[in-house]
Amino acid sequence: MKLGFLVLAAGAMLSAVTANAAPFTFAQFEQKSTADTIRVTNGTGSTGSFQTIGAPLVNFSFLLPGLQEAGLGMQDAIMNVSGNITTPANIMNIPGPKPIFQLIDSGTISFTRTTPAPKGPGNGTGTNLLTISFTNAMLTGTQNGTSGSLLASTPDSVMTFTSDFMSFDHAIALDFAIALTSISGGGLNRTSTLDSLRAFTADSTGSFSSDPAPISTVPEPAALGLIGLGLAAVGLRRRRKAA
């Protein structure tokens, strides 16, 4: 079991490299306040949870130019994170700073716009900026360190991305990276070899990528103009036929 976890941890490190090399980072977020936004709790032994503290407000921004032209840009959004921990944390016994790994078995991450925004012609009800469902994310850092990262990348992790403002139907690879800073509780560590990470709170920022880039479902102004001209042409042709 220990060997299997180390293999998985090594896979997570490789995924992190893959994530950094992703061809298009389409969105990012940063917290709006100085209060901690993420909490890890330790249950009995190897059980625990990874979640947001309350419903923190964050600055969420798409990096697709078309969406910015449609008036979205930086958004006030509510972040919600929920993840399950069922396995012990693992520490690599090597010289120097010792890497520590904690598997997050499954979870969800969502960013909900505080007010609706247009997601298409005549539709002003879009609130789901981004929702992620994932399995096998890895929380990594160094033992007693006060910073770390939650990483996931396909195919090591199974993920789905959904949004009111873009489509991921054609994406062949997805990944995300959430940086954790100002970790409390003495840093990343465990109480015993059979325990999951001990409890802590932290600040967070993050980014989300896909290969290839997602497709915007919000028409750019130029596209809306072409749609209008097309409808006008159809109407004119019908009137001529009727005459």
TrEMBL record:
<keyword id="KW-0732">Signal</keyword>
<feature type="domain" description="Ice-binding protein C-terminal">
    <location>
        <begin position="217"/>
        <end position="239"/>
    </location>
</feature>
<dbReference type="InterPro" id="IPR013424">
    <property type="entry name" value="Ice-binding_C"/>
</dbReference>
<feature type="signal peptide">
    <location>
        <begin position="1"/>
        <end position="21"/>
    </location>
</feature>
<dbReference type="Pfam" id="PF07589">
    <property type="entry name" value="PEP-CTERM"/>
</dbReference>
<protein>
    <submittedName>
        <fullName>PEP-CTERM sorting domain-containing protein</fullName>
    </submittedName>
</protein>
